[in-house]
Structures are given as C-alpha cells and as structure tokens.
Specification:
It is a single chain. The chain is of the alpha/beta class. The protein has 2 domains: about 1-30; about 35-174, Glutaredoxin, CATH 3.40.30. Helices cover about 50% and strands about 20% of the residues. The chain has 6 helices and 7 strands; from the N terminus they run H-H-E-E-E-H-E-H-E-H-E-E-H. It has helices at about 5-30, 35-40, 75-90, 105-115, 125-135, 165-174, and strands at about 45, 55, 65-70, 95-100, 120-125, 145-150, 155-160. Helix 3 (about 75-90) packs across helix 6 (about 165-174). It is globular, with a radius of gyration of 22 Å. The termini are far apart.
C-alpha cells in the first residue's frame, strides 16, 4: 500500500469517527424547552369557555396557528377579526387556528358573544402563561402567536399583533 493511499484511508477513518461522534452527541442532547413544551401540549386537554374539554392531540399532524390572547388586552381584541379571516382561508389548506385565552371563562364568553369567531377558543389558565414562556416568549406578553408546521416544529413566533397578510405569508412559507 502506498503512502498516499494510507494517508487517504487514515483521513477517511478520522472523518468517519468525527461524523459518528457528532451524530452520537446530537442524539444524546436533551430536548429543548420548546420541544418539551410542544410534546406536553399535544397530550394535554384544555377547557372551552363553556367548560367542555378539548384535547389537543387531534390538532397534531397539520399546520396549527396558536394565538395566546386575553379580553383585557387591546391589541388582542383588535387582531381577533384578522385571525378569524385567516382561519377561514387557512382551513381549506389543512390548517387550523386555535385561540388560547389567558383569561376567565365569563369574560371570554362575553367577548365571544360580541365578537364571534369560527376557530376554537380554549382557556389557558396559569399553565397558558407557562406555555407562552416555553414557546419563546420569556416576557409573557400578549398577544403571542406561534405557527407550528405539520411535522410539529415551530415555524414562526411573534409577540405582538399580527395581520391577516402576515399570517398568509407565514402559511405560504410552510
């Protein structure tokens, strides 16, 4: 075997060992807080403003826009019609919008009586704020929107108001 061939085989061996070490290290890393939060989200059930349970598992496997909001939050209230229009255009593409209210059921029911929406609304309670923070909004401000792709990965996050145009751009990028 020539010296050049030995050097080439040695380099290939070192590269293979390096790739193996990288792959092993990558697989052994703990899940990110965001991944853990999403895994817990899919197995959870939230209450609707009327008290019925709504499991999240049926929403998995398709694009999902989660909007965290409250009736006492003026930007949240202002963007609700935009979210409703987006939900109408997103549904035929296989997408779903879910509103998670960080609020009391009575206030949410009163709001929805005045401003009905076509997408489901659930109550987040105090756990909703924990979810907001785990999904990337350390400040816990509202409104907060998270777009999850069909594979269950966070595709977009935004603290602050969104518009139908912005949400359509997010959806096109999926």
């Amino acid at each position: 075997m020539t010296l050049a061939r030995r050097a080439l085989l040695g380099a290939a061996g070192v590269a293979a060992l390096g790739a193996g070490a990288w792959w092993s290290n990558r697989r052994l890393q703990p899940a990110s807080p965001q991944d853990t939060a999403l895994a817990n989200f899919w197995t959870s059930e939230f209450k609707t403003p009327h008290g019925a349970g709504m499991p999240m598992a049926p929403l998995q496997g398709r694009p999902l826009l989660i909007n965290f909001w409250a009736t006492w939050c003026p930007p949240c209230v202002k963007e609700m019609p935009e979210l409703d229009r987006f939900a109408t255009s997103f549904a035929p593409k296989g997408g779903q919008v879910l509103g998670i209210a960080i609020d009391q059921s009575d206030a949410v029911n009163e709001f929805l009586a005045r401003t009905p929406v076509k997408f489901p609304i659930v109550l987040g309670g105090l756990g909703g704020l924990d979810l907001v923070k785990a999904l990337g909004n350390a400040a816990g401000g509202l409104p907060f929107s998270v777009l999850i792709d069909a594979k269950g990965r966070v595709a977009q996050v935004k603290m602050g108001s969104t518009t139908e145009v912005e949400l359509e751009q997010w959806a096109k990028a999926l």
